[in-house]
Write a structure and sequence with these properties.
This protein is mainly alpha-helical. Helix content is about 70%, strand content about 0%. It contains five helices and no strands. The termini are far apart.
């Protein structure tokens, strides 16, 4: 038997530690070359080794792509959950802007009217004392609101795992924190 004749499938299967059926399948897939006489070229062993290496590299790339997609999916899920939390908070806790404007107008128009009445009855000094007391009370309430807001932002950041990126955002007082009418 000369080297040009090639080797029978049985011998190639033993070299590659494969079944005869698998050798035939690899030939059909074009991984190894089958000669017209039904034998396999001696280079079939080298072809098979190259194919395995190529498949290994492809698997590693596929594994990396799969891991990347998993991580990207997890990030998308976390971002979506964070947005849902923010939307829920916005919908359930904050007042609509037109309602805030209306309430602001009512409160401060009444305040301005009361200040004018005090000024008429008791003089400019009484009005000034009242205005200073109101400003002081508003500053205290503003500080309390800022503190509550910072706590809410910190809690939200903890939920999303981004505590270091937490920044306070301005918000309107919630319905639940408004004083109830008697």
């Amino acid at each position: 038997m000369s080297s040009n004749d090639g080797m029978p499938a049985k011998v190639l299967a033993q070299f590659l530690d494969l079944s005869l059926a698998r050798v035939g399948q690899l030939a059909k897939e074009g991984v190894i070359t089958k000669q017209a006489n039904g034998r396999y070229q001696n280079s079939a062993i080298t072809q098979y080794v190259k194919w395995i290496r190529s498949a290994k590299d492809t698997k590693e790339i596929d594994n990396l792509q799969e891991e990347y997609l998993k991580q990207k999916t997890l990030k998308i899920i976390k971002d979506r959950e964070h947005r849902e939390i923010l939307i829920e908070r916005t919908l359930n806790q904050l007042l609509p802007m037109p309602e805030v404007r209306e309430m602001f107008a009512r409160v401060f128009s009444a305040y301005r009217q009361a200040t004018r009445e005090i000024e008429k009855r008791y003089g400019v000094e009484a009005s000034s004392i009242l205005t200073q007391a109101e400003r002081s009370a508003l500053r205290v309430e503003l500080e309390e609101l800022k503190q509550l807001e910072q706590e809410a932002v910190t809690e939200s950041a903890k939920r999303s795992g981004k505590a270091s990126e937490a920044k306070p955002k301005a918000r309107v007082r919630s319905r639940s924190s408004r004083p109830k009418k008697s």
